[in-house]
């Protein structure tokens, strides 16, 4: 592919609520720019950027795809991101390396929850942006209604630079408010006809142009003085002022069109090229000196030492692991070596290339500010910094949200456990929001992600790529057992069946300990009633017995066992006999010492707007939660509570339903608490039933 300088690059993420048409808009820009010769369609599975089999089957974007196009001599790296929250990890990576964003909004649905969320993510990344109101050709399309919504949600800085000519089936073009011209799109949308503004839109255009001039005038003192003196701004002044105001976040221009009909695409590309910042405009990026927390800045300069950030990892079935990266400093060349500072490893960088969807386009070099890819890096993962030895800085890690949904996974066929584990491990490389662990307490393999759809697609890929089918079930709760009372009991094991017999005899006192103490063994034997060589066997027998409680077979914790007496036989006693005696004493002692069931309690933080506070708090109470407090944060409320894990297994789904997707939460383990008696009875009964079923 052709080479470009830093000033001639634009890195643009397309973000939106799912279904607003990001992929179709990306496809239209690819086609209009001449990068492809046909206009692909989402519903036929022929778009450039949705090439994964799961994306084609479900007609949704799952992975961020890169698509470089050229317009007016400028390279525009388009990053087509997922619109569903289950795949937010790929959005986080894309927004980290983008310098600007196109927010796609449906002309029929308007501002949706995804619009709000992704807008806030763009804010967090300080991205310049514009809004493209898509689907103007669809039934019930209403540009001005959507514009009002945008201004209500995001403020008066949202200003149209276009208005549509017609709507629904009669949509045929746009009026450019800056140069006061009408543009209609014919045929496949590539043919553009310029004309005067339709008479019925003239007054509206004049009104919006006045508002646009007022907004951009504030970008400089010179323009502001001219505007306040009543002088109209020239087209050149509006264009210059818009660029300054857009990059400063003071103006967010709104355009419109139809991606599927390829209408309104040329003006969009022109504004991206003329108004969005190049990496050279960004000038510098923050970094941290390796081995310290000291911040510094790295200049975005193609002549500096090479420093790049890997923002995405993808497993290609033919090429292997592909690492997508953005160069922030220097000019990266292929067939060289770079340091991975995060892993303290040296990586050999082979052929450099960019990706047009799934198609590789080789590059001779990658200058500062550009986005590209390389295959088969050995140690490098998403978020790692690659640089020359002279650079001793690491880029701050990409912040990915923590998984919120967990399921147990097991193969449908016995004996395929290793195959499942191997396949899932491959997905860990690609997806920073995916987790897998083998939980020894519940003896299950657990996978965690951003939602049920996320994990459903993981398992579907497991079947397609590795030929192993699995079932997802809710994970078991890692209950524990403990005691509340004290018991002194005897454990005696005696067996005689010809020849040498077995004899072990102990007296042990069991007593409760503080939460978190686990287990303590105390040797209080005096006078040799239990010989010294058998005491370790007693302790070992007790530790083994801890694994299976008397109520429901869960591990026993926070218990003290004091061995204070016993007896032995000179011939028949052995370590095994005393281990068995300890087992017997344990079972009897725990049964007599008021055993109780414990459950894990999670520290939960729910972030919602004020309108959902009552519903969330009421729901928390219904889940046996204990509200700890609330605190405001950036216009929302954070509710803090302790809630039993058993009540939180499907909370991600329920919260999404209660808040129309606007709420979010995080949780982590806090402590164990005693299970209420009526619930403990149900848990114990279920455990016994499961045991009976397993035996049959």
Summarize the topology.
Layout: E1 9-15, H1 22-33, H2 53-58, E2 65-71, E3 74-80, H3 88-97, E4 100-106, H4 113-124, E5 128-134, H5 143-154, E6 158-160, E7 162-165, E8 173-176, E9 181-186, E10 191-195, H6 202-217, H7 221-228, H8 235-247, E11 252-256, H9 265-275, H10 279-282, E12 284-289, E13 295-299, E14 307-316, E15 320-329, E16 331-333, E17 336-340, E18 345-349, E19 352-356, E20 359-363, E21 365-367, E22 371-375, E23 385-387, E24 393-394, E25 405-411, H11 417-430, E26 435-439, E27 444-449, H12 452-466, E28 470-473, E29 480-483, E30 487-495, E31 502-512, E32 519-523, H13 535-545, E33 559-567, H14 575-592, E34 595-608, H15 613-622, E35 626-633, E36 636-644, H16 651-658, E37 664-674, H17 677-695
Parallel strand pairs: 1-3, 1-4, 4-5, 5-11, 6-11, 32-33
Antiparallel strand pairs: 2-3, 7-8, 8-9, 9-10, 12-13, 12-24, 14-15, 14-23, 15-22, 16-21, 17-18, 17-23, 19-20, 19-22, 25-27, 25-28, 26-27, 29-34, 30-31, 31-33, 34-36, 34-37, 35-36
Helix pairs in contact: 6-7, 6-8, 11-12, 13-14
Properties at a glance:
7-stranded mixed beta sheet; 8-stranded antiparallel beta sheet; Rossmann fold; Alpha-Beta Plaits; 696 residues; 17 helices; 5 domains
């Amino acid at each position: 592919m052709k080479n470009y300088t830093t000033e001639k690059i634009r890195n643009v993420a397309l973000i939106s609520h799912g279904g607003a048409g990001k992929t179709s808009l990306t496809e239209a820009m690819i086609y209009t720019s001449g990068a492809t010769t046909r206009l692909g369609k989402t519903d036929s599975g022929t778009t450039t950027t949705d090439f994964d089999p799961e994306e084609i089957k479900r007609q949704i974007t799952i992975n961020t795809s890169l698509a470089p196009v050229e317009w007016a001599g400028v390279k525009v790296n388009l990053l087509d991101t997922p619109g569903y929250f289950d795949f937010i990890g790929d959005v986080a990576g894309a927004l980290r390396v983008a310098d600007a964003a196109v927010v796609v909004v449906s002309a029929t649905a308007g501002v949706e929850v995804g619009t709000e969320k992704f807008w806030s993510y763009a804010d967090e990344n300080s991205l310049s942006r514009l809004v493209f109101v898509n689907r103007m050709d669809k039934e019930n399309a209403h540009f001005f209604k959507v514009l009002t919504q945008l201004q209500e949600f995001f403020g008066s800085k949202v200003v149209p630079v276009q208005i549509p000519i017609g709507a629904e089936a009669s949509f045929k073009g746009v009026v450019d408010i800056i140069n006061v011209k009408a543009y209609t799109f014919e045929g496949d949308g590539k043919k553009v006809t310029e004309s005067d503004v339709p008479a019925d839109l003239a007054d509206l255009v004049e009104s919006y142009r006045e508002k646009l001039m007022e907004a951009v005038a504030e970008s400089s003192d010179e323009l502001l003085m001219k505007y306040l003196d009543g002088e109209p701004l020239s087209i050149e002044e509006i264009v210059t002022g818009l660029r300054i105001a857009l990059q400063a976040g003071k103006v967010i221009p709104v355009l419109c069109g139809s991606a599927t009909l390829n209408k309104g695409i040329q003006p969009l590309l022109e504004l991206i090229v003329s108004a969005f910042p190049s990496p050279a405009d960004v000038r510098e990026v923050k970094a941290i000196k390796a081995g310290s927390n000291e911040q510094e800045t790295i200049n975005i300069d193609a002549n500096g030492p090479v420093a790049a950030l890997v923002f995405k990892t993808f497993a290609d079935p033919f090429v292997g692991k592909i690492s997508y990266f953005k160069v922030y400093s220097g000019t990266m060349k292929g067939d060289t070596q770079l340091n991975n500072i995060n892993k303290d490893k040296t990586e050999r960088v082979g052929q450099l290339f960019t990706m047009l969807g799934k198609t590789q386009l080789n590059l001779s070099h990658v200058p500062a500010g550009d986005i590209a890819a390389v295959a088969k890096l050995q140690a490098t993962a998403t978020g790692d910094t690659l640089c020359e030895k002279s650079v001793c800085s690491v880029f701050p890690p990409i912040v990915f949200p923590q998984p919120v949904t967990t399921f147990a996974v097991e193969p449908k066929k016995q004996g395929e456990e290793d195959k499942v584990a191997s396949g899932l491990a491959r997905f860990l490389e690609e997806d920073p929001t995916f987790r897998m662990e083998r939980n020894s307490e519940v003896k299950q393999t657990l996978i965690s992600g951003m939602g049920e759809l996320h994990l459903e697609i993981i398992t579907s890929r497991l079947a397609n790529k590795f030929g192993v089918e699995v079932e997802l079930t809710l994970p078991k709760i890692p209950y524990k057992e403990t005691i509340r009372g004290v018991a002194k009991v005897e454990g005696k094991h005696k067996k005689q069946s010809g020849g040498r017999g077995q004899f072990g005899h102990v007296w042990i006192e069991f007593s409760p300990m503080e939460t978190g103490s686990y287990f303590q063994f105390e040797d209080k034997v005096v006078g040799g009633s239990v010989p010294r060589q058998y005491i370790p066997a007693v302790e070992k027998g007790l530790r083994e017995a801890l694994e299976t409680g008397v109520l429901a077979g869960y591990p026993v914790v926070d218990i003290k066992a004091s061995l204070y007496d016993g007896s032995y036989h000179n011939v028949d006693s052995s370590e095994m006999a005393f281990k068995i005696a300890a087992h017997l004493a344990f079972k009897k002692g725990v049964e007599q010492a008021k055993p109780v069931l414990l459950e894990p309690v999670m520290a939960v933080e729910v972030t919602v707007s004020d309108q959902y506070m009552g519903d969330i708090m009421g729901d928390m109470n219904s889940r046996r939660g204990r509200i700890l407090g609330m605190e405001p944060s950036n216009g929302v409320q954070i509710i803090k509570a302790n809630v039993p894990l058993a009540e939180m297994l499907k909370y991600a789904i329920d919260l999404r339903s209660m808040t129309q997707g606007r709420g979010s939460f995080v949780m982590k383990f806090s402590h164990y608490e005693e299970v209420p008696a009526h619930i403990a009875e149900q848990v114990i009964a279920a455990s016994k039933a499961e045991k009976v079923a397993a035996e049959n």
